[in-house]
Amino acid sequence: MRNIVLILFLGTLFISSCSTDKTDDNPDNSIIGSWDLTALTIDEATATDEEEFGQDILNMLSATDCYLITLTFNEDLTLVTEDASNYLEIGVNLGGTGLDVPCPSQRNMETTTYVYADGVLTFIDDTQETVSVNLSISGRTMTIAAQELDVQNFNGGGELIFTKR
Questions:
Q1: Which class for 63: exposed (0-12), middle (13-18), buried (19 or more C-beta within 10 A)?
Q2: pLDDT of residue 74
Q3: Which residues pair with 73 in a beta bridge?
Q4: Residue 109: pLDDT over 70
């Protein structure tokens, strides 16, 4: 479970430390705006228990309009990341029949710069490393391959799905 939280947190940090040079005529402007992490898609045949657990948690929280990670890409090429994954409290509901995952009220916020061009997002992460990830945007959906983040125990596959507000 801690690995899933770590994965979500790292995914947010990697993605949120970016900024893009754009003009009004640039199709790469589609990234500008706020994006909420709404789902994790995984290959059920190869997914680890941790990936399945992470998917369940994201599904539960998203169903109540609670988003662990929000990425806001601004026109001035700054990226603001809001990350609540460090504040998850996971328990068992009172009847003992399922998970109890309240929406975290606290969030870590981080601002960085980014560049987005030709489907590649480049940003500076919290360790001052330059990170580049491939992503796709279709309408109001942004998809990033989870394995591109190279997070331990999260290499089997899957995609992080962000929805634009």
A1: exposed
A2: 97
A3: 33, 79
A4: yes
Tokens in use for 41? 């898609």
Length of the chain, please? 165
Higher per-residue confidence, 139 vs 9: 139
Residue of 148, 161, 85 whose CA lies nearest to 122: 148
> Is residue 99 very low, low, confident or very high in pLDDT (cuts 50, 70, 90)?
confident
Q: Are 157 and 42 in contact (CB under 8 A)?
A: yes
Which H or E run includes 90?
Answer: none
Q: Which domains does the chain have, with CATH numbers?
A: 2-164 (2.40.128.280)
pTM of the entire predicted model: 0.77
The letter for the amino acid at 124 is: I
